[in-house]
Design goal:
alpha+beta; D-Amino Acid Oxidase, Chain A, domain 2; about 25% strand; 8-stranded mixed beta sheet; binds flavin-adenine dinucleotide; 8 helices; FAD/NAD(P)-binding domain; 2 domains
Length: about 375
């Protein structure tokens, strides 16, 4: 078969797979395809509020609970991490920090603990009484009546992970990263055509949409994809009095080193408006103090925000378009894209290579939204 760019020097060859987006999901997919020897082009634009850099890096399928095969996927995604960062270290020589000390979910009201105890035990969690909690984490607030401990959850340094993945992908002889923006796609030919902001057109064999919260804005998608940006504000503090990732309600503290921690986060439906607000930062300070009172006097280091790509059921959209199998979705990872990113990359790379993915992707099909009016939570 002749490649349609032949005789059309203005057309760019995208190779076997064009990936739209260079966040964690796009890079992990590129890396997994590179390992299979596929020729890949990642088209990566920069936008304020990119989620993968902004995130807290928690690997928390037990706290951010889902059901059935979606939960099985999330647990497998968490359990992939140790071998994933080890393989990255073998190739790049850089060890991405991974914390698998478990996650604490503080309980301030014993009745709430009783109501969720059975669910927690089914997820492999255990109950820590106030005294057990105090001996494990002396700096945790004495107002907690206890905590659930999920021993297999943890956190990754997502900023380091992104940097290492990017370096690895850039060093690959089969992957090119180009800095441009995909404006529109055309799926009516034998292969997908992609129109870039620079005015060029690129042709590949398969096309992966991994553009986070910006995915629905790509013109020419065969169906609307219900993804909304949901802003999360974050801050870091120059102290880490606790060692475990710790949740209190919707807020959390993630120790990043012996000398600093990150605190998150808000869930704000404000459109594409990254940035922090005095009110948002006040909420984060209150969360930090509620978890570990010593953090009230910690030195503020940085503040930032990111835009989560949120779907109505908080599950990602993954897999082929039912009408255009050359188009694969890998977007909408909502609150858990750091957790799910590496396994998403492996599964989408398998699909793009004509293999059967290792896990069931049916809960994530775009078809689950067909014909329904959808509202993002
Ligand atoms: C404050 C906050 C805290 C979070 N904490 C956690 C956590 O603890 N654990 C967890 O698992 N998840 C967490 N998440 C969620 C997680 O960060 C996201 O689900 C995940 O990063 C999404 O990755 P992505 O690659 O799809 O999107 P992004 O990282 O946003 O990347 C998308 C990329 O595509 C580019 N792009 C967009 N449009 C185009 C285009 N047309 N052409 C080319 N490029 C384009 C963008 O510029 C961007 O670089 C958090 C998110 C936020 C905001």
């Amino acid at each position: 078969m002749t490649y349609p760019t032949e005789g059309h020097p203005a057309l760019l060859r995208g190779g076997d797979v064009i990936i739209v987006g260079g966040g964690l999901v796009g890079l992990a997919t590129g890396a997994a395809l590179s390992a299979r020897g596929a020729e890949v082009t990642i088209v990566a634009d920069h936008n304020a509020g990119e989620a993968s850099r902004a995130a807290a890096g928690m690997l928390a399928p037990s706290v951010e609970r889902s059901d059935g095969p979606a939960h099985t996927f999330a647990v497998a995604a968490r359990d992939l991490y140790p071998s994933y960062v080890e393989a990255l270290a073998e190739v790049t020589g850089i060890v991405v920090p991974l914390n698998r000390d478990g996650i604490l979910e503080l309980v301030f009201d014993e009745r709430r603990a009783d109501a969720t105890r059975a669910d927690v035990f089914a997820l492999g969690g255990r109950w820590l009484s106030a005294s057990e909690l105090k001996s494990l984490e002396p700096a945790i607030s004495p107002s907690a009546v206890g905590a659930f401990h999920f021993p297999d959850d943890g956190a990754v340094d997502n900023v380091a992970l992104l940097r290492v993945l990017r370096e690895m992908v850039e060093a690959s002889s089969t992957v090119s990263i180009i800095h441009d923006r995909v404006m529109s796609i055309d799926l009516e030919n034998e292969r997908p055509w992609v129109v870039l902001e620079s005015g060029r057109t690129m042709i590949g064999t398969k096309l992966v949409i991994a553009a986070g919260a910006w995915s629905p804005a790509i013109e020419g998608l065969p169906r609307p994809i219900p993804i909304e940006p949901v802003r999360g504000q974050m801050m870091s503090l120059g102290s880490a009095p606790i060692h475990h990732v710790t949740y209190a309600g919707d807020g959390y503290v993630v120790p990043r080193s012996s000398a600093h921690c990150v605190v998150g986060s808000t869930m704000e439906h404000v459109g594409f408006a990254p940035g922090t607000t005095p009110e948002g930062l006040r909420t984060l300070s209150e969360t930090a103090e509620r978890i570990a009172p010593a953090l009230a006097s910690a030195r503020p280091l940085e503040k930032w925000s990111g835009l989560r790509p949120v779907t109505p059921d908080l599950l990602p959209i993954m897999g082929p378009d039912p009408d255009y199998p050359m188009l694969l979705y890998a977007c909408g990872h909502s609150r858990n894209g750091i957790l799910l990113g590496p396994l998403t990359g492996e599964c989408v790379a398998a699909l793009a290579s004509g293999e059967t993915p290792a896990l069931d992707l049916s809960p994530f099909s775009v078809e689950r939204f067909a014909g329904s009016r959808v509202t993002v939570k």
